[in-house]
């Protein structure tokens, strides 16, 4: 089911309002309130969405006595253009390759786990299309049925993406055609939401559709099934895994693809939901690599009043997790597959379909050090362009050898191992330099000037961090405590919020 376009209830209003607007404009023109040339230019701009930006800026400088504004220096370092990581998908005629056959979900698989509906996964999206596409393709090739994947377009550009009016270099670009070809659903948020508001939007959507449980995933992850059997690598972002008992630990020791008892990533998610329901009543979250992928119990969030919309980004999780725990709901770190938190994109996503002609490689969409990385990195970690090329050559040689190895047999497994090793590198790359570059991918695209709802990319980041910090301050004042873990570090109870003095000097 696809939910796009203006909310049904608003449609009947558009025509009357349009007529009223036209009438007002005619009256204004008659009275000379607006000059018709400027109006025409603006109307044309609304239609085409592509005014001549520079010319428009010059023309619109008011001819008053004030000095022109002083401009900030033009940024000299600009990230290279992003590239489409799935050219085959963009060409609407070519057939898509099949996903690995052992990950194809059996029809009605959820029923085998006592579930009356296929649990959906929400993937929120604001910026950086190549990263979202990579995330979606990884869930699909790990067996998640496309009809149970819900992309939540939270770009703030209204219908511009649905109408195909943004370009790839626009940070908020999203390709509806490509997502539809993949068979996944798209839900549009009516306006740009913060992280906490978007979480509450997932909650209200689940409520409206009668889903008591749902999953949500961040858009910057890449997942795999346990195709190679047990995997005990602790990746950046992993916490200690929780086991209910010894038997549970044995049950979670995965069987490799092709063996009896093998479960894909998706099937493991169903298994996990089944286990959770059987073992605990008052559960809130199951986390898979902290909240990169999360299983949510709607009843828990409803019991504590959902996410605090006034803590827009960071700190909101500390606040909610504490309230849930104070109210007796459990949260546990579990495993359903291999999850990597990444900031880079595979050069060709056909690799995730195990296309033998594709050599798995990744590219950093924003190799420039981010503004948040205040200290200069040591030279050897920075990697000048030339050393990067050398590394790339090494990798290419290595990959060529691996390709020969693949030809000898165990092709699927060899390819899988190559993928896992590449994506582990991508995960490590994101967390390099003490995590200072974790968010650099968000600033990769710098285009889109003049397109509908254009918003300056650097301005967006700056505003984001201001709001994030404001949210942290709200958390501190709400609980009188500065650090995240309220349950471990304080004697606060649920009813204490906003009623206690600060506990630090
Ligand atoms: C879990 O799945 C099994 C079948 O695999 C089923 O018998 C059981 O009822 C399910 N548990 C719950 C809580 O739905």
Automatic annotation (TrEMBL):
It comes from the Eukaryota. This is Uncharacterized protein.
């Amino acid at each position: 089911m696809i939910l796009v376009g203006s909310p049904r209830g608003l449609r009947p209003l558009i025509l009357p309002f349009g007529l009223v607007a036209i009438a007002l404009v005619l009256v204004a023109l008659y009275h000379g309130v607006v000059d018709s040339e400027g109006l025409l230019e603006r109307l044309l701009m609304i239609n085409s969405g592509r005014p001549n930006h520079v010319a428009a800026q010059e023309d619109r400088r008011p001819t008053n006595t004030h000095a022109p504004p002083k401009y900030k220096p033009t940024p000299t370092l600009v990230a290279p253009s992003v590239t489409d990581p799935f050219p085959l998908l963009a060409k609407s005629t070519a057939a898509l390759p099949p996903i690995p056959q052992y990950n194809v979900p059996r029809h009605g698989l959820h029923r085998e786990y006592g579930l009356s509906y296929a649990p959906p996964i929400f993937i929120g999206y604001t910026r950086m299309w190549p990263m979202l596409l990579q995330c979606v393709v990884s869930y699909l090739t790990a067996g998640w049925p496309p009809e149970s994947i819900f992309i939540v377009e939270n770009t703030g550009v209204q219908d511009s993406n649905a109408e195909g009016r943004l370009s790839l270099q626009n940070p908020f670009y999203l390709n509806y055609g490509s997502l539809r070809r993949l068979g996944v659903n798209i839900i549009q948020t009516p306006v740009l939401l913060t992280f906490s508001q978007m979480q509450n939007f997932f909650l209200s959507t689940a409520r409206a559709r009668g889903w008591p449980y749902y999953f949500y995933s961040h858009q910057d992850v890449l997942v795999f099934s346990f195709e190679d059997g047990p995997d005990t690598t602790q990746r950046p972002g992993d916490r200690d895994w929780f086991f209910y008992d010894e038997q549970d630990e044995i049950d979670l020791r995965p069987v490799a693809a092709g063996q009896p008892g093998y479960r894909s990533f998706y099937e493991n998610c169903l298994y996990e939901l089944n286990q959770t329901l059987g073992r605990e009543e008052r559960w809130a979250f199951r986390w898979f690599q902290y909240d990169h992928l999360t299983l949510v119990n709607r009843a828990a969030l409803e019991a504590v009043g959902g996410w605090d919309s006034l803590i827009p980004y960071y700190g909101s999780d500390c606040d909610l997790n504490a309230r849930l725990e104070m109210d007796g709901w459990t949260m546990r770190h579990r495993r359903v597959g291999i999850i990597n938190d990444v900031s880079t994109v595979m050069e060709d996503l056909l690799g995730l379909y195990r296309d033998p002609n594709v050599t798995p490689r990744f590219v950093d969409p924003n190799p420039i050090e981010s503004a948040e990385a205040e200290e200069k990195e040591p030279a050897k970690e920075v990697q000048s362009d030339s050393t990067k090329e050398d590394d790339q050559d090494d990798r290419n040689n290595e990959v060529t050898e691996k390709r020969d190895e693949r030809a000898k047999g165990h092709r699927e497994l060899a390819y899988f191992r190559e993928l896992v090793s590449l994506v582990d590198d991508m995960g490590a790359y994101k967390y390099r330099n003490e995590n200072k570059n974790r968010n650099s991918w968000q600033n990769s695209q710098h285009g889109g000037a003049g397109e509908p709802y254009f918003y300056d990319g650097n301005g967006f980041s700056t505003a984001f961090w201001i709001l994030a910090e404001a949210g942290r301050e709200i958390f501190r004042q709400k609980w009188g405590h500065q650090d995240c873990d309220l349950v471990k570090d304080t004697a606060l109870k649920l009813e204490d919020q906003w009623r206690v003095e600060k506990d630090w000097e």
